[in-house]
## 1
Amino acid sequence: MPMDYGEQRLKIHENVPLAPLTTLKVGGPARFFARAESEEQIGAAVAFAEERGLALFVLGGGSNVVIADEGFDGLVLQVALRGICVRAEGERIVLTAQAGEEWDDLVRFSVEREWAGIECLSGIPGSVGAVPVQNVGAYGQEVAETIVSVRCFDRRERKFCELSRDECGFGYRTSIFNAEERDRYIIASVTFALARGGAPRIVYEDLRKHFGARRPNLAEVREAVLQIRRAKSMVIDPADPNSRSVGSFFKNPVITAEEFAALSERWGPVPHFDMADGRVKLMAAWLIERAGFPRGYRKGEVGISTNHNLAIINCGRATAREIVALKDEIQRRVAEKFHVWLVPEPVLIGFDKSIV
Ligand SMILES: Cc1cc2nc3c(=O)[nH]c(=O)nc-3n(C[C@H](O)[C@H](O)[C@H](O)COP(=O)(O)OP(=O)(O)OC[C@H]3O[C@@H](n4cnc5c(N)ncnc54)[C@H](O)[C@@H]3O)c2cc1C
């Protein structure tokens, strides 16, 4: 039986298995677990953890986390605030979504109303509250382009605050939420500005190929993105074992132009994107494959998706330890061959900090 905590009657559960709450389906239990359905309950959860000197981890849809087999010896808080509020400002639609809304439901909702700005981010699993954390991106779009502000509970100041887009410090798969201010903010809602009747973004090669010279509408772009993602097992589908993953396990590494020149001299043409700041972004999938981990690679209960080199998958009964062992092996072999260190994209919870 859960206990009720404080005036908010926050339900605190004990020893809650976390694996079923994640897409990778590994990991042990949370010592304490609570689901906050209001901002007041977020405050209550923080107070509960502080009173007992417990570590607090905020869980969304569990699609970007690897939980240790030992579980999490603290409070896991799931932010389950729901609701969407929309305001029209001329051609701009200002939309505030609560953190517990499903991200892809929000994309569908916007596309159906012909509001442009997040259509290429169709099919990404997880909650709205998580999208600012790693500045979710795909197919030529990032949430940073449309986020206006993020409302959060500031655990340091013990109060709610509104951070502007600039204050969020967005970059490639990063923000203050997963970097310098990690663990400080609990996101309650996110406000986006979308373009009413705006044109879809078609910059990504796969999308350009898909449509050729034709100018599709937003709904067609969403369908195309979903189709491309399904073919790569990048949409969660219980019937597709390749989607028992966290999506891309590694970020695409960014190196200097000099490092890139040395790499190309040694290995010939290396697929890459030139970045605006002069640096070069490599394709982690290419490095992984060349380092000896082809699609379909398997080691015990873990492996690499048969549809995508970047996805480490749980083939059935994997442990978190096995997932991390494969991650380590990939990092080591890529570093030995290319002198490039791959940084994991998911958050590793309950592990020794030195394993990243
Ligand atoms: C099949 C698949 C495909 C994917 N494709 C993509 C992709 O194309 N692009 C991409 O960028 N990502 C992708 N991902 C990764 C993942 O879906 C995103 O990072 C997503 O935003 C994570 O959301 P979540 O709610 O599941 O967060 P979780 O995995 O639960 O948490 C991720 C991080 O966010 C933090 N967090 C979550 N909610 C809050 C909150 N309310 N306040 C503060 N911190 C919070 C957590 O503490 C944790 O650090 C993919 C994952 C899978 C499984």
## 2
Amino acid sequence: MKAARLHPGAGPSVNLDDVSSPHGPMLPTTVQIEVHASSVNPHDCGMIRQLAEGVYEKPSRLVPIRLGHDLSGIVTAVGSAVSNVAVGDEVYSTTAKMGAWAEEFRVHHLQVARRPRTLSHAESAALAMAGSTARHVMRVGKVSATTSMLVIGASGGVGHLAVQIASKVLGARVTAVTSGRNADYVRGLGVAEVVDYTTHNIRDLPEQFDVILDAVGGESPESCAKILKPGGYLIGLVGHSEEVKRTIASTSRDLGWRLRGLEAPFHFRTFLNLPRGSYLRELASWVDAGLVEVEVEKTYDLAEIQDAIDHVERGRTRGKVAVSVR
Ligand SMILES: NC(=O)c1ccc[n+]([C@@H]2O[C@H](COP(=O)([O-])OP(=O)(O)OC[C@H]3O[C@@H](n4cnc5c(N)ncnc54)[C@H](OP(=O)(O)O)[C@@H]3O)[C@@H](O)[C@H]2O)c1
């Protein structure tokens, strides 16, 4: 079968290699999937860069390294303890284990769910990691119908799903930060206000928010704090600099964070999303109920995986980039 792999010493370019299919006995908790589609996340691009630069220790068994975290496909075998899906089911998954850019893949059964009936395989794969992250943001920020929320990066993979879940599923009042070229698109996702970051500075917004999701990483906690209500949540998806982390850590108090010179304490959260089948099931139900739409800007064939990676690396994707495997 074909699988996309990064070869040590070959720089950040990914090869499509002939490799052996998953073999050997199935673990009791494993699901084997014939992959029909996958997607590219900025996290994949970051890992490729860091692996190529030798940032991570590489156990020799992982070299060359298989890549990709999202998939949609058909179950071809299940372990003896698996009861949530069966052979022949159409499923989707996001997994911490890399290797989904391949024709076959095995994942843990708790990271698999039946895919949305109303989506294609490419759209389902595009939903998996970005949607799970957006769903986790709602839990971390305790988003509800009484929440006012600012989403920075509202046209991206996570952002376009987060604004729809917050506004259409949970009933929150959402202000979306995007560029002018994506303003009309984002307005159509159910948001109350759109702010063009190319002409406005979010620090000057007159409103204060209960929750700010920063899916871009360009804003400092200090400037976000000016537009965050006391006790509000600042959720950052992109790692903040060591200096910012030290500032925050040195001023922490109890469960919240107090920044020097600021009156109001607020909660600062950054996380690495862990794949959960329960989130995938919720996302599928919201999509099939017509509450959440998945935007796929472009779908590449697996043979064009490097072009798909380069596309995401440019940082201008509206929605997601998907990969068609069969
Ligand atoms: N911690 C976790 O568990 C986790 C999980 C998933 C993702 N992430 C991280 O979260 C980040 C976002 O992921 P993603 O998939 O949503 O990224 P993405 O789809 O690549 O984001 C691209 C979008 O960002 C917009 N954008 C760029 N600069 C902006 C700015 N200054 N203000 C507002 N919007 C801006 C672009 O719109 P324009 O072209 O209009 O500017 C584009 O639509 C990535 O760094 C990713 O690694 C973290």
